[in-house]
Amino acid sequence: MPDGDVVVAGKTRSHGGGRAAGWSARLDPGGETRWTRTIGGARATDGFKRGLPRADGGTRLIGQTRSEGAGESDGWLLDLNAEGNTERERVFGGPENDRFVDAAMLADGGTLAVGFTASYGAGDRDVWAVRTDAEGRAVWQRTFGGSRDDGAYGVAVHDGRAVVVGYTRTDGEAGYDVWAARLDLADGEAVWTRTLDRSGMDAATSVTFAGDGDVVIAASTAGGGFGRDDIWLIRLSADGDNVWTRTLGGPSADTPWSLAPLADGGVVVAASTQSYGAGSADAWLLNVDDNGAVRWQRTYGGELWDWPGQVAVRPDGGLLMAGYTTSLGAGYEDVWVLRLDAQGRL
């Protein structure tokens, strides 16, 4: 947040009457809790996927809800003020299953939210992108995809450019491919689209802009690397041309979940790993330079299952990572937030 606080967003079953409810908390720079909020939960499953800081000190939360809206599930947008009180709530979608999975704030205070929709588009599910204004009202929405299953997991906006990434399933093909598109923010039309195939079971999970305007995509790939699932990093030029690709991982399943850009053109990758670390699964941070070489890597977690969600770079160069843990905390799964230095040390 602008004042150095940290807002985390997700879901809870501990405070929603046994049903999944949206959950958010605001922490001070030292990690002490200022407030927590549980929202929704009238029906399973409600939850937030992303929290976005607003310039006025409030927070915009996006995710999915079954408690509100018209369909099986709907895209959910909620604005909280600095004290954690709800200012407005919007739902988006039709009669079927529609969800927001990621979002980015825009220069005008609006939002570009992405995910998938089964209510609109050409296929079973399609990539869904919705631009809102600062009040959360829809400016436009677009779908992309064919007659089968397509969806978006990540979006990044920089300097008036927007890139959306996810997966596509081509007619007649058994597997999935990485899908990426640059969108015109004015109307949502695609400037370019790219499909990338490595193993037949590939999906992009996150995207960010590098320092020189290139696009870095993190994807999961099910073959052709070191283990059962590996991290596939893809760097594209601003025009969507391939610059380089790298595969990272060990003998077991390793999956990237988020990216954060570094000032020198590199990126930090937050992944789950079953190849390294202390437990069944651990959070794995990798610092990768602008040529795709790993400068350092660290794992975090205990003897059970610990997973990362979002990673962010603080103004001082330090890192923040949030996810969930079953090795620590009071319950089966608990929210897990780590403040790290620039080298990934606690």
Unreliable runs: none
First-to-last CA distance: 20 Å
Strand tally, please? 26
Beta-strand share of residues = over 45%
Shape category: globular
What portion of residues is helical? under 10%
Secondary-structure element pattern, one letter each = EEEEEEEEEEEEEEEEEEEEEEEEEE
Question: How many strands, which pairing sense, and closed or not: the largest β-sheet?
Answer: 4 strands, antiparallel
Number of helices: 0
Q: Helix/strand-derived class?
A: mainly beta
Radius of gyration, in Å, reads: 19 Å
Rounded average pLDDT: 94
**Strand adjacency order, main sheet:** 4-5-6-7
Organism: Rhodovibrio sodomensis
Region (Disordered): 1-76
Protein name: Bulb-type lectin domain-containing protein
InterPro entries: Quinoprotein_ADH-like_sf, WD40/YVTN_repeat-like_dom_sf
Break the fold down into its secondary structure elements and pairings.
Elements lengths: L5 E7 L8 E7 L5 E7 L7 E7 L5 E7 L8 E7 L5 E7 L5 E8 L5 E7 L8 E7 L5 E7 L5 E9 L2 E8 L8 E7 L6 E7 L5 E8 L5 E7 L8 E7 L5 E7 L5 E8 L5 E7 L8 E7 L5 E7 L5 E8 L5 E7 L8 E7 L6
Antiparallel strand pairs: 1-2, 2-3, 4-5, 5-6, 6-7, 8-9, 9-10, 10-11, 12-13, 13-14, 14-15, 16-17, 17-18, 18-19, 20-21, 21-22, 22-23, 24-25, 25-26
